[in-house]
Model the fold of this input.
Amino acid sequence: MNLSERGGEESPMLPQNNTVTFDSSFFTEHDEVLNLIYILSTSRPSSGGTPDNHAAALFKFRSILDKYLECPTLLDPFLEGMVQKLSLPARKIIHDVFFFQHGAENEVDGDGIQNEWIEPLDRLMHLLSAIYALSKVRGRKYIQRLMPHEASDVEPVLTMLRWFGWIESHVKSQSIGEADMNDVCAITKLPIEMQAFQKKLIQQQQKDESSAEEAKIWESLYSLLNWLGIISLVPFDLHTIDSSLESEPTHSISSRHSSGATMTLVQSILSTSASHLNDPGPTREAAAACLASLLSRPDLEQSELEGFVIWSARAMYWFRTGNCSDDEFCRSHSKGDEVATNTKLSSTMLPLPHDPPSVFLIMGALQTLSSIFKSGHRSNLLSTQQKVNGIELLWEQSILIAEGSIGSMLLRKLLVKLFARIGCAYLPPRVAAWRYQRGRRSLLTNLMNSGVSVATCQSESAASQKEYSDDELFLIPDQVEDAMDQLLRSLTDPSTIVRWSSAKGIGRLTERLPAVCADDVLDAILQNCTDPERDRNWHGACLCLAELARRGLLLPNRLNEVVPLVVQAIGYDVRRGQHSIGAHVRDAACYTCWAFARAYSPEVLRPHVKELSEALVLTSLFDREVNCRRAASAAFQESVGRQGADNFKHGIAILTAADYFSLGNRTDAYLNIALVIAKFDEYQKPIIHHLSDVKLNHWDIDIRTLASLSLARASKLDPLYCANKILPQLLKKCFNDDLVVRHGSLLGAAEIVFAFGELNMAQGGTTLSEDVKSSIAELVPSIEKARLYRSRGGEIMRYAACRMIECISLASVPLTVKQQVRLLDSVDSCLAHPNEDIQSGAAKALNALLTNYFPVGSKGPSERLQSRVVDKYISIVKTEDNPAATRGFSLALGSLPSKILAPNEHVLDSVLDCLCDASRRTSLVGGEGDAETRRNAITSLVNVCKTVGMCPAPEVNDRGAETAPVTPLSRHQATRVFDTLLDAMDDYNTDRRGDVGSWSRIAAMHGLETLAFLAVKSSQAYPHSAYQAQPISQSHAQYETLVPSFVERLSSFSRSSPADDTRSSTTDKTLYDSAIIFDEGLCNSILSALLKQLSEKLDTVRCQAGVCLERLLTNNSPRLPFVPCRHMLIRALNLNGQPKNWSNPALTFPLLMCAVNIETFHEPILSGIVISVGGLTESVSKSSCAALFEWIRELRNAKSTPKIYQMGEVLLGLFRKNKRNGRVLLPLLATLDKLLTHGYLDELLGMRNGEFLDSLLSCLSDDARGCSDVKRLLAIVGVSLNLLHPHLETIASIKEKVFPFVMSMLLNPYPRVRRYAAEQLFAKLTVDGESMFDDHNRLEEANQLLLNVVWHEEHDSSGHIAESRNRIADLLGVSLEERERNMTLTKKSASGSFVHRDEFETYSSLVNSSKA
Done:
């Protein structure tokens, strides 16, 4: 017994150490699986063998095995033991049931016998389902070999299979007629125990039809069919183990069936297996394999095979024509008499179904026939003329079906497989003597002396030519020609698997043909590569060529015409509208090259190495699809290994750079790996030409962009060639009629110009001719003159033109003043375009253009330039009604260079004023708010600060003169910028796109982070890094700030300049101004704003806030000063250097509630948490609510009541700060409702002075008065009623204050609010009424009024609702003032708000309205 059979026990012969073995390493669930098998195989309740445990064990067993679907061979060491432990108990149950049924012979009958067998049969189903689970993972054939295969198992397994098949058909229908039941019982002798089991299965299906844990009947059928397939191959005559023939002589066997006797064992197996060929699931495959193994037996090929072939042909004829007449079927064939005799025989043995055959039946028959012709011997298949006639009939029907329209892909695949198998049966089984044989192939041989390999190859080639000349010719049957014709047609099938099956079939057939015929086949295959538009033809041809080369059937003398087509297929890419097709063709072509590398010797393939290697390298680097890049790399790797380094130059170096994993990143392949390979002379120019001629014309804009960047890098390796050959061609193609071509050419030309600028080759010299420079300078105006912006695709042309202007400017191409102004006009026109990408590209082009051209003197820009740029842009942003213009030019203001942006403080002030006004959340463009303008203004505001810097201490040169070429931000300007960004953090504007204010908040967060570090770097009042920090005093240790006191900071200036003991008042003032730009208050405001955003509901905003906050707290160069409780905050947020997904609410909110105890950040964090708890997103609300509740519970456990009081102040503060603001009030009310419901505000409600209750009711009353938001009113009602907690000691005072407010809500002008208030009040009184009121009768009457009154009536002309409200108030003891008692329903005033009226006010209001 091996280790797997002993259940994983340790062998005493093995060393007892901690060495990890194969068995224990890769199948870690082995012990658990054995335990599950034990549960499945046992029936003792003490061992857990109940039906429920069987189902649970089976479900767990399946889930464990499914993990190994990707690598099933890991189970191989244990499979034999597992299969035996499953099959042996199943075999015992099958034998017990079989012998009991045959021994009982209806002697017993009753419910006791029926129920006795239910549990074993149920266990049998679970065991067979477990065997199917193993087959699904490891494969049917592998598991079949491990099943028991004794001769005594044949009849029991067959009987059980028939019973389960009958049960399956009737469980599906769930209703059995009495006549049908009798018929089935007469045929199968179904025992009573199986009838009881069938009833149980029907009941289970009615209860739960889709239970994943239960064993399925079809899984049992699959395992039984698979089992029957192996035991039917017993190595002796099946008639000798047929129990029905024990008393009959052998000569009478053939006549039993015709005389109406019971079917023999063979006939029973045939009919039972054939009945499952119509199944739609995996059982069809198992039945086909079972039939094939039976009919392939030598003793049955003579007697049974012919009948099955005729039966299959009849089924195909019926499926094709819809006619089931035997006479018509016989007349359709030329040898009708012989067919009629065989048809009668097959009809008796295998009757056709009552209904027309489905496609599943035809697929099952084809699958069976394919397996038979694969494993059957040719001499038996075509031994008699009668068999040949049957096969010809089958052949005829198969061809007719194939030539019709077939929608099933699997049916077409099976037909192709059958054509190939039958065609091979008509040819002698031989390996072609003329095929090419490379001989021994090893890496060592490739590294040996090349002279030896050449001699060996020449001798092999001579031998091959001799064999080719001596190849014998023989007559090819017509069936082979028909088979080859069908296979060649299938090479163009729409389905890939059909084409692949056809290619393999052609390879098998060609291997048995003479060389002349094989040449004809190759010519037919190459004909598929004539039309470049038919991708299926190319794909099938590549697969077929690879198969021929693999088998040595593609002779070296044909490579001259084959290799160019394969190279063309490697680059196959045909545009179809806005996309292209051809990835599958390129992948197949790479497979063909892989096959070439393995099939041919280096000398044979050497003439074609150059074109093959170039094509493979280019595809591995630049193909759009990752699978094609990797396929080309694999083919190139195989070529280098098989063909040797002499053929493929630099092969090892290329494979090192372009391996399987590195090529997975397309950007890295284009920009980095391609540059490495382009350094080799053999591939440099092919790469440059491929990028410029092919990839710049690709349909995908991303590929064109990457190709332009890659071409620019490659052009630096040979700038003269690119300047003389590539760049002039690209400049001409910029005016091509095809949009894709001119866009790619413009991008490519721009990047090459930029590359030449980096090499200092664009300003002067002879690299670029004057004509080329002139063409570059006039390119963008010429494109505009040709009106290429206005046609289809004008947007991408605009962006490419902006990139060209940017590259011209960065390369400093010589331009006249007129050309400079013309390009500036082009940029201005693109800035006003509504496309954001174009605006961004135009802003970059503007910065480059103004930086490298338009010189500025020592006094600043000229008045003309100032008005042309700065004044114009500011005017457009302030006055333009077109949102696209304000967006673009607000972005442009942040892209201006410092020489134009800040020549003096006045110009800088005007730019800052414009951007600050445009970024305000109340700013309007054309009378409406524009989120993009606000966001761009914030971005530009930050860019301006980065460009000009913040006021550093004046630098003193050797001559003592201060130099300040650009005016930096003053303290006042910097303060205003910070205030603007902090104000933008409160931008919550919305439109139909949602919370568009979040764009401004995200831009402001990044801006605050950038400017905070900028302020720290530019200031000399405190150290810039953690290592320069001075020791802090003990009194400030609790705050953990970075810097010393302000007096100590000022004293550092005197220490840094020992030459000056005293400073003038001006210098002190300057130092003071620079020292207080970034102070404690500003630091607290920034961190509070970020923490508030981190605690709110939008995932994107939380993610950006967390990233900015993490960088601010953890960056040490410079380190942010003035952070209160720095270490505590870092520990609370768990900033340990590991990246965090701040958008995950389950991670973020618990961390935030750890930081809420820091006094400085208590209010902002709670303000954001309230929005999240009351939000609509379930995941955010659930996580934030759990974190908040946990924090309150911890406060209660710590008896920290002041913190709870502080939380109440925050909640009330949100009410006061956000009056009439539904964005905050609605989630705030929802949060209050949750807190009150769970009793987390009991400490606040139980305050003796009632301060919190009074303030909260005041806020609720103020918000409800005149409120037109029904959702908010409903939330107010819910909060007010949840204030009533009978267990509180202050319930009496709470009742006195809450109930009058609730009574007022019963007369709210909105019917829905009145009805909701009545419903909630009734629910509250029903649950807690007896605890709050002593008089049960009055309480009952009040409840009846709440139920009976129609509170949602639109009008209350009779005053019934008001009277009912007053009566409810009296019953509950609620005192109402006289004015409140006289109020009825409200009406809407002319201003839109609701006012109360009494019953005497109707006439006067009518008069007032008529006067108006």
Notes: The first strand starts at residue 574 and ends at 576. The chain has 69 helices and four strands. The beta strands are 574-576, 579-581, 1387-1388, 1394-1395.
